[in-house]
Amino acid sequence: MTIPAQFEAKAMEQKWYAYWMKNNYFHSKPDHRTPYTIVIPPPNVTGVLHMGHMLNNTIQDVLIRCARLKGFNACWVPGTDHASIATEAKVVDKLKSEGINKNDLSREEFLKHAWDWTDKYGGVILEQLKQLGCSCDWDRTKFTMDPDMSASVIRSFVDLYNKGYIYRGYRMVNWDPEAKTTLSDEEVIYEEQQGKLYFLKYKIEGSEDFLTIATTRPETIFGDTAICINPNDERFSHLKGKKAIVPICGRVIPIIEDEYVDMEFGTGCLKVTPAHDVNDRVLGEKHNLEIVDIFNEDATLNSFGLHYQGKDRFVVREEIAKELETSGALAKTETHTNKVGTSERTKAVIEPRLSDQWFLKMEELVKPAIKSVLETEEIKLYPKKFDNTYRHWLENIRDWNISRQLWWGQQIPAYYYGDGKEDFVVAESIEEALTLAQQKTGNSQLSTADLTQDADALDTWFSSWLWPMAVFGGIMDPESPDFKYYYPTNDLVTGPDILFFWVARMIIAGYEYTGQKPFSNVYLTGLVRDKHRRKMSKSLGNSPDPLDLIDKFGADGVRVGLLLSASAGNDIMFDEELCLQGKSFSNKIWNAFRLIKGWEVSDSIAQPESSKAAIQWYEAKLQQTLHEIEDHFEKYRISDALMAIYKLVWDDFCSWFLEMIKPAYQQPIDRATFNKAIEMLESNLKLLHPFMPFLTEEIWQHIAERTPEEALIVSTWPELKMFDSNLISDFETAIEVISGIRTIRKEKNIPFKDAIDMSVINNEKVSTYFDPVIIKLGNVSDYDYVAEKINGALSFRVKSNEYFIPVTGAINVEEEIAKLTEELNYTKGFLKSVQAKLSNEKFVNGAPEKVLEIERKKEADALAKIATIEQSLAGLK
To answer: Exposure winner among 79, 192, 394, 657, fewest CB in 10 A?
Structure first.
């Protein structure tokens, strides 16, 4: 098989991925082996590959390929999430571009458009993952809206409802006016924004007096139903029991008292708008206040907004401020910074809104999830610092709002049969619902035509929290062979930004439905940022297209570039130079392989002692690195594991081992050494394969003709063995000796082709095992051990041992004397200037002690250097 001069990444990637797919290496089915299971964090079906996906899925592929090599039955389940809000928004936009309004469609008509869109664009990201080399079991690909997955979600809802955990309630919720749906607390991002504080005058009924109230949202005055003062605030004691008039709308509202009011904030009194603030809602219930909702679902004002009806809330804010100023009701404005809730999906500013929604009680459900991570450590988070974040969220958790005002998603299985709020039943199908409704009402004449299913869909996270169980059929059939074999899964790799949304909830669901953890370890990656520490985003233009990077640097190069800087939980400062480093590493390995395969092999020549020593050292070094790698993997230090392999291959194998065994120019290599070189190369390829699958498979298949059963992807991980650490430390000494020889050659311009003699005083009794290597790599013709120092020789020390290279024949003595004399004169001049400073009393008395220390060190160094040069000159004359 001809070996190309260059590693052509793109052609090799396509070739080997097709080969792996053809031979079904990624597919797993239950057998006698121990399973190793990963479920992919399902990317949004709307999505395309970005840098976060690249990092996350590369790590998963490393883990799954490593497990496969170690003999586990490796199963990596891929899939996508239906992403209710994001997908519905994209479909609505597409329909708009075609002149179609969603509100003019029936639910069934809209869902047909949504499925058409999903069928067209939904598989893009999974196909992109293949270009990265991801070895997912594509036969097991799941989508959270697959019929069996949806059935699992519905069964879960019904089960939790029947257990008393799910209820319907009229509560203040987070409303996204762009997506026109509620959000859970975790889907609201609070951002500091600079705005204004408006000081408004409310006239007291029946007098010319007025109250001044500070608000950040003057447009909400149309929903005011009371003014609240603190009963302990003497400034307002004269207003107790009186009423005020709301500016513009003229509504007369009571002045109530409550200690909730902060006397120090603003003016010390509060306007109460129960429909539009969660704390005002509490006050409203406590004081039996009227509730006036002033917003439409898109956050435009409704009829309560009078002449502002139909206008956007932020437009109204500016216009109403002008009207209030004109009428004299605006006392003043001040710049004010406060935290504003925004939608995690659409980025729209959230409106608090009272609404009938479905909620899941969390207080009892979270207890096993707290215990398993924070007490028993049955589940471990890597890095451990996220334990505190996890604890804070679970110990302060509120009931989960699981209903969404969307059509794309699993429709809530609640069926209404009457006009009352409680006139409903919950069931997995309309047929079961009918039976329950007939039993509940005692009316056997009810038919399915009398039932209306709740129009809302379930929160996407309520679907995906079942992911590790549902992908194996565990909700619908807990006795499923796949579920019993693959569950619990082993490792979860995801970002810390969904620790609440998804990770914690999967743990909660796992214990609720199986009594078992859903996974053992959670590896939390950092965010990928640019080299200026900015979060990557399209708007900043600092996020490269991952597929462009793969085209430019090869998939292996990109994987290495990302992983070298990807320590768990720490953000990655991404720079394309990292990918270039990965590509350079690929070329280094390829060229090393070409070098070995380019040697002529002889069966008749004996193995040199230097090669024997090199092989024994490299076998020990390989084992030392293997132990190190295993420790890194155990602690989920994937970046450190790769760096250990990188150093082993680049420094130890390519830079030292190959140099030690390399035959002389145009000379053959002995068979024993060549075979060992191939064996060591193959071990390297096994270690590298999880990180660089394409390059390693290409070289593996070039080394020898292989059957499909002998492919690298299904070979065996190197076996851990004991190793001689003394060999490694002795070779470190040999490296220092070789470096000393090379330094003298460089400094004295002694060409490597010129052999030199060497003597050594071995004071430390260091092993002489690597002397043949020193002789070969230093081109030493004669290597003696002597009892005393050789005068006039060039020397260097390694530990307490002194090495000597005779001057005769090694250098041009006259040139060396001239060079050393020049250096001596310069150093003496330098010393003179330093000593002049130190003899100056004014300088010594005025200079800081640290400056004096530096000058004294300069003096000592110069004196030592002069002594060394003079000694060298004496030996040459």
So the answer is: 192
